[in-house]
Amino acid sequence: MKILYLHQHFTTPRGAGGTRSYEMSRRLVQRGHQVTMVCGSYKGGHTGLEDPYVRGRRRGYVEGIDVLELELSYGNTDGFVRRSLTFLRFALRTLGVVLREPCDLIFATTTPLTVAIPAVVAKWVRRKPFVFEVRDLWPELPRAMGVITNPVVLGGMRALEWMAYKTADRHIALAPGIQRGIEADGIDPEAIALIPNGCDVQEFAHPTGAWRPDGVGEGAFLAVYTGTHGLANGLEALVDVAEELQRRGRLDIFLVLVGQGATKAGLRRRVEERRLTQLLLLDPVRKHDVVNVLHGADVGIQCLANVPAFYEGTSPNKFFDYLAAGLPVITNYPGWVASLIEGHGCGIAVPPGDSVAFATALERMAADRAALAAQAARARQLAETLFHRDALGDQFVRWLEGAARR
User: Which segments of 168-307 does DSSP mark as H helices, in order?
Assistant: First the structure.
């Protein structure tokens, strides 16, 4: 089967960012299918291609995946208008690809939602099976965050979302809330598979070293966040947590934020203004290096802005990396991730916006290393039993094969 896979932000482990599409494509190739990945140029990511662009595109095989990369740079630090234009340009340029490229099935994954445009057109024109993977509910999330308020834009996005759901033959939801959101548009539940992000269990089982930033000794307690520094992540809350720890004199507890994004410069200014010595802002690292970063940490931080739409509607990559690394998790928002953490005893969930409770939870974890070790073991067990990438990848491949047969 020839699969045309549309993901604007595709990256391999050589870059920083989620590698779900890379991992799923590899498993499709291993099953004997041909995958053509159509993507853009994600800042911090790495598609695996090195040759120069020719007329705005380059193409080559990366571990059996036929990667077609369009010269359309995108980064979380870009302004709203620039990002929106990049999304639209990718959708328009991809239209020509999906109408000409040989394929038996079209697969499109958000974000952005505009990736659905070429997929819907190709479905109408070419009558090929179309599988739509939804990573976030749009426009529900940007509306809830107040990022987009223009009613015309929101209406257009809602119409595109509805059209994509109605056009697709099958859907993949990454979180329970997303699954319910698709069903709410009248889609048959039998046409929706819940396949969350997964844990790369084998990769995290073999670190080459335990990394710690300069100035953080072996005896210090290290809480690490690895991921995007954007508005949705609400990392300003961690500045308040660091300030609370400093007020208590707990300079032996460090918070390390690894990544990049639109809010990072503002975070750095707040850290400097408050003279916080135990909150460190570090550059993003490749997926391969995340293994060593987490191996040297004591706890992983799962942080999001206090937006109710996030509670059941996200499937954060970093959370599954923490589990794969056997790392206890502390989260600052309720929902299905918090329920997993508390239900399986692999960390602590604190109320949103409560820096005092967050700081107290870190102190508790630092004080009882035996309990922390037990949480770590349960985190790894959860990764192996419920979220092993191989099991989820097999489910993913069978879901696409079933769509093609229908």
Answer: 176-183, 201-204, 236-247, 264-274, 287-295
pLDDT at 146 over 80: no
**Span 2-198+388-405: which CATH code?**
3.40.50.2000
Q: pTM here?
A: 0.93
Query: Is residue 151 reached through a cis peptide bond, with omega within 30 degrees of 0 on the bond before it?
Result: no
Using an 8 Å Cβ cutoff, are 221 and 362 in contact? yes
- According to DSSP, the β-strands at 170-173 and 57-62 are unpaired
Q: Pull the structure tokens for residue 389.
A: 């990438």
β-strand 329-331 against 299-302: which pairing, if any? parallel
Amino acid 325 reads A
- Residue among 219, 171, 307, 228 nearest 18 (CA): 228
How is 313-336 classified by DSSP, letter by letter?
H---HHHHHHHHTT--EEESS-SH
Task: List the domain boundaries for the chain.
Answer: 2-198+388-405, 202-385
Cα atoms in the 13 Å half-sphere on the side-chain side of 197? 23
pLDDT tens by residue, 265-306: 999 999 999 999 999 999 988 888 899 999 999 999 999 999
Lookup result for tokens 């707040």: 270
d(CA 27, CA 65): 10
Residue 80, phi then psi, degrees to nearest 5: -60, -45
Average pLDDT over residues 347-375: 97
**Cβ(13)–Cβ(288) below 8 Å:** yes
The answer to whether the beta carbons of residues 51 and 60 sit under 8 Å apart is yes
Confidence of residue 154 (pLDDT cuts 50, 70, 90): confident
Of residues 45 and 250, more confidently modeled: 250
Rounded to an integer, what distance in angstroms lies between the CA atom of residue 273 and that of residue 5? 46
Q: For residue range 317-344, list pLDDT tens digits in order.
A: 999 999 999 999 999 999 999 999 999 9
Q: How open is the CA angle 246-248-253, to the nearest 5 degrees?
A: 55
Is residue 196 within 8 Å of residue 315, measured between CB atoms? Answer: yes
Q: What is the mean pLDDT of the chain?
A: 93
Which CATH number is correct for 202-385, 3.20.20.140, 3.30.70.360, 3.40.50.2000, 3.90.79.10? 3.40.50.2000
In this prediction, residue 136 carries a pLDDT of 86
